[in-house]
Amino acid sequence: MSFPGEESSCINEDIENDVTSSCRNLVVTEREDIVEETTGWIKSRTVLGIMGFLGFANVYAMRVNLSVAIVAMINSTIPIPSNDSTLDVCPTSTPSNDSVPAKPGEFNWTPEQQSIILGSFFYGYVLTQIPGGRIAEIFGGKLVYGVGVLLTAIFTILSPIAAFVDFKFFIVVRVLEGLGEGVTYPAMHAMLARWIPPLERSKFAAYVYAGSNIGTVISLPISGWLCTLDYAGGWPLCFYLFGGLGVIWFIAWMLLVYDSPQTHPRICPKEVEYITHSIGPQEERPIAIPWCKFLTCLPLWAILIAQCGQSWLFYTQLTELPTYMNNILHFDIISNARLSALPYLTAWIAGIVISIFADWILSKGWISRLTSMKLWNTVAAFIPALGLLGIAWAGCDRMAVMLLLSITSAFGGAVYAGNQMNHIDLSPQLAGTMYGITNAASNICGFMAPYVIGLIIDPEQQTLGQWREVFYLAAAIDLGANLFYLFFASTQEQDWSRPDNDDMTASAPVESLFVAES
Q: Can you give the residue range of the structural domain that contains 172?
């Protein structure tokens, strides 16, 4: 079926073969038996998903490679503890034939300086979250997302040079890299609000945002291997390789992706019709930001606090796990990197499977959207938190630690069916800005977690007891944040989402769109 007034070369099935031989891939939705016929072998929104996935894989590879590279960059880490049984430490393992001898790095950075470096990325990252989402809503997310990845790639390439020049200069470059990457998530959220029908959002978010997990899976072992190639440059290769891939990705993104279905020159009109009907009417002009309504919106606070709790646990693993494995479990750098990647591999696979399952249950009508989000958000918070508690008591049992991390982290992927797409339910028009707000707040944990961990861990003698405190803290914050989400989350579109009066539209100058509306 088609809508009155819309012209389509693919609507009339009697002349379909005369118009185009590539309108295929019949998809029958459960909403009023709408038929979607897309041009070519692949849907245009699928291209968006693939490129978005590769973009997040790139930016996360560029973000996390430092977690491995810093082990090779520093001249010394924590002194290796003795096998004295009176100390709360793990005994050193006997080197195997496969172990790579540790080589002193070029930099004499203290543990405090290392924590500052690992967290400096997030100083810039949080600053561009809200502007990135808002600019994407006004002008479209294609250029915002693409330029964000490109800037991240450029500053990643400059990172080794900055490190050799000066410690402070290296921090500045990491901050600038964070500024570039900060726009990516809110810009993509604004694009998904325009492109993806509601019943596809959980699995589509899993496909796209899970690029962060696969980027981590790829980056950690490759970075560990590159750090051992002294004849080819060693650890700087981690930055040059992934930075160069980011530049190549940017070129492909600009050629293949468009801001909305209506502006795509090669999309089949049937796909445009399907997306438009599924999402509903979109405001042609962006509305002004109702800041005061944001401040008093408990469902938005629920998303923000839930993301903060999950981010604290996530960044505890992301930035500190390689250090823990190196200094406590005594893995060599290659084993360290490979094993550090396992939890993100399981999270990537499980995130996609869980999201497909969650969307399937919703399509059957067996569960409401709100109940579904609360259920999967609880799974994403509760099981990984229990995993950290288990790790706290697994002690020096390396196999048990890695099994716990890998199995429990898999359930962290349920977050894509949890709070990640909740912003679009509250307001499709302002999803990018709201995601920028919540992601900025949650990523403060990106530099707060390493800083607090640096206060807990004794730089002279790390012990299992100190690391247990780190794991207890992360688990407690995550579980407490999930409780708040259970009480106050909502999927109801807010009354300020689609204002009827013209005062909230973009008929005023662009700068007025950032002015508060009460």
A: 39-80+102-514
